[in-house]
Amino acid sequence: MANVADVSHDTSFKGTGVVGGVRYARAVWITPRPALPTAGAEIPEDGRENEQSRFTVAADTVSSRLLARSESVTGAASEVLKATAGMVDDRGWRRAVAKNIKGGHPAEYATVLATDKFIEMFEKAGGIIAERITDLRDIRDRVIAELRGEPEPGLPAVDGQVILFAEDLSPADTAALDTDLFIGLVTELGGPTSHTAIIARQLNVPCIVAAGAGIKRISSGTKVLIDGSLGTVLVNPDEDMALAQVEESRARAAKIAQWTGPAQTRDGHRVQLLANVQDGATARTASTTVAEGIGLFRTELCFLSSTEEPSVEEQADIYARVLEAFPESKVVVRTLDAGSDKPVPFTSMPEEMNPSLGVRGLRIAFDNEGLLTRQLDAIARAATELGRDDTAPTWVMAPMVATVGEAKWFARLCRERGLIPGAMIEVPAAALMADKIMPHLDFVSIGTNDLTQYAMAADRMAPSLASLTDPWQPAVLRLIKMTCDEGQRQDVPVGICGEAAADPLLAVVLTGLGVNSLSAASTALAGVGAQLAEVDLATCRQAAVAALDAEDALRAREAVRAAIAAGQPG
Ligand code: PEP
Ligand code: MG
């Protein structure tokens, strides 16, 4: 890996943590991919058949190697390797290569051209399909290396424990990981639903994705401390501090493994732990964990590649898959939060200068109420068909509510359909107006991701602003406190459904502030529950006071650690 200027002591980077755990080891970059060929000389007509068979042999070799590897592992890792082999065997892709060879291109370049065509198609489809582009590039590179007789690109040989760094990991690389040696993963690109993330979860290797281009400045051999819950990478940290954090993380992992719920503080104050899901599959997975229900169903993620609005019946079917995963518990469905980083093609929004400040969330229905009412009809239909009632309530909330009028309008549309209305508190205006907004609603849920972005005026997608887009910022905590105080005064339940709910230490503060529920990725819930079990409510309240009073996010964390230590018995 060619590196720009090396980074110095204590430099930190922030990405999206997808598997928790703290690890300290040398960084190692993945073996580079082959340089891609340029067009090259045209193959004469009589050599093209031979060129085609060179390609076929290389592609068959890559495919059978991947299949053989799939048999040596189990579960999702095996499925991923099989799926990658399937892409090498894909008839459409092979036909595209064959067409290029027939046109006179050498096999290597024909492979590049065909793959580019597919990448373009996947990019257009967007969303989850676009995340498979890494897989396409991976098969292209493997076939090119095979055609040239070069070693397979991918994992380097290492002689001790390392943390693997890559631009993005291919599924085949991740699935072949020896987790005794590769004890952590950090990628520049990728997303929480990428293959890297899926396999890292299965292997239970601490993993951070989307850490940004800055990590390229970390050279192989540099010592790094990674925290897979917080998504942080610290370069050349103080060794004693790093080892202490690793030890603490291992002790915590042991406790978490034994924790079964339901969540309560040491002195019995209950906090509901709920899961964030995006479809039937993630809801079913959540139902096998300690999650007591669903606190955020991000419906827009079901439609990232839908160019036409699904009918009420089709939507009802999709929602039913999620509701039926929790037949006896609360499920909170969020109406479409399209726009900004989550484009939903059928909502056909105009290009905007500032998408995150534009027509997103509930705003997409301002000029198109039917879009919202059809979705509410579909949610009501799914709930009725499954016979859900007060014992398994279906709550519905609107994203990006900013005014009392919006809350009233949304609540009326919900109540007309027998649905229980709520709103996300993620625009600072909504927290500031909580006293006026709450009388119209049955619950609220604080979206700390956006609340932080808007309170700090810092783009949540910008890795370089990670220290600002931190829900530990006391300014954000003060907005949460205002909302919780009002919730208690008006007896309106207040939940948290942003990433803050997945941070065990912050969960102590949020409990102290009076939240009723915490909703996060289901894999993070046991960590939160185990932490709450160690503190009493008085300590949570002291931690909250200390965090609110801190000057900045770093000091807030320190003050809370101190408050928890002081609150330990004996
Ligand atoms: C949030 O903003 O905190 C939230 C939960 O919603 P999303 O991350 O989907 O914007
Ligand atoms: Mg949000």
Description:
With 570 residues, the protein is α/β, with parallel strands linked by helices. It folds into three domains: 116 residues, Phosphohistidine domain (Glucose Oxidase, domain 1); 104 residues, Orthogonal Bundle (Enzyme I, Chain A, domain 2), CATH 1.10.274.10; 298 residues, TIM Barrel (Alpha-Beta Barrel), CATH 3.20.20. The protein contains 21 helices and 16 strands. The strands form two sheets. Strands 1-8-7-3-4-5-6-2 form an eight-stranded mixed sheet. Strands 9-10-11-12-13-14-15-16 form an eight-stranded parallel β-barrel, surrounded by five helices. The longest helix has 24 residues. It is globular and about 85 Å long. It binds phosphoenolpyruvate and magnesium ion. GO terms for molecular function: kinase activity; metal ion binding; phosphoenolpyruvate-protein phosphotransferase activity.
